[in-house]
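Review session, final week

We close the course with one last complete record, chosen because it touches almost every idea we covered. It is HpcH/HpaI aldolase/citrate lyase family protein, a protein from Mycolicibacterium austroafricanum with 385 residues. Go through it on your own first, then we will talk.
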Amino acid sequence: MRHFDHLTDEDRKRLFHLEPQDFTLDDERDVLAVALGATLYTPADHPELAARVLRCVRAGVRSMVLDLEDAVIDDHLAAALCNSVAALDQLAAAGGVNAMIFVRVRTIGCIAEIARLLGAGRTVLAGFVVPKFTADNGASFLTATQAASELLGRRLYCMPVLESMQLVHRQTRGDELARLGRLFDRHRDQILALRVGATDMSAIFGIRRDRDLTIYDVRVVADVIADVVNYLGRMDGSGFLLTAPVWEYFADRERMFRPALRSTPFVEHDAVRFRDQLVSRDIDGLLREISLDNANGLHGKTVIHPSHVAPVHALAVVTHEEYQDATDIIAADCGGVRSSGYGNKMNEARPHRHWARRILQRAGAFGVTNEGVTFVDVLTAVAPR
């Protein structure tokens, strides 16, 4: 698997100083976690599920979730589970798939049933996404994932979704986070990443954010995200990669506020018409939220529409400037401060070391741009028109 391998050789040469590296399901956990990027959810009861997965992968998706939970009505659960197993078997029979494929389960029993029914699809399945994961129910899901791994004879990961009422309510949040931290530490090798479920958090308060706002404008949810990062996203060896919550919008309608996407970068790269297309598809709000995700310690993103994948991946590419700063910081073993090679900031070796390590991990997964190439160039190359 490799990000951006759906681009032409000419485009990759034009865009990348260092191209993204290949990865497989056998790579280290940290490598795979960073490589998740935009994780596209799709209903597990889709009538042509395997074909849909392959179409999305050809368009650049590198992680997908077959959703048995909110995307499937109760009466269709059994049929959707069988449909997801059949799709995994079909993908394996077709020679595999160039992406990490997960199933979002509804119950603990779903994990055992999928493992029991899978044939050749065991080589395609990367693991399970567990919604409404709590300190009380989580151990059982992790145990079931481990049992499925043993039955299928291969490593399966768990991605808990942090969205429970115990986590959201301020009175119980600290205790819940502490208990989750201890549970995750005991099962560290099983957990690929922790997913933040902001839609369910908002629902507790009867809130649904407008497309002109980001999740960070919804303070009760932003406060939870900040605490989750504080407890579970630390870079001291105790934390995990945290993925950013979903952006819900992709249809046109009249805007209440002026679009937030700056014109200047698009004017400079002769892409003004492309900017207008992004605004009309509500991608400007998504781009703003992705920037805030990164600033707040979240990586990748849950997405529900294929058009959202390209913006997430374009902003995941490491710029030439970021890469130069990161390599300079890592090379400074004895600490100290030095001017950036771009002459526009100071790089402090010790305070910025964790940042630099994360940048180099991202560079491996998503590549490094050529000098002078920006996210506008990358997005123009990969976004559907």
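Two points worth writing down before the exam:
The chain has a mean pLDDT of 90.
The chain is about 45% helix and 15% strand.
Good luck, everyone.
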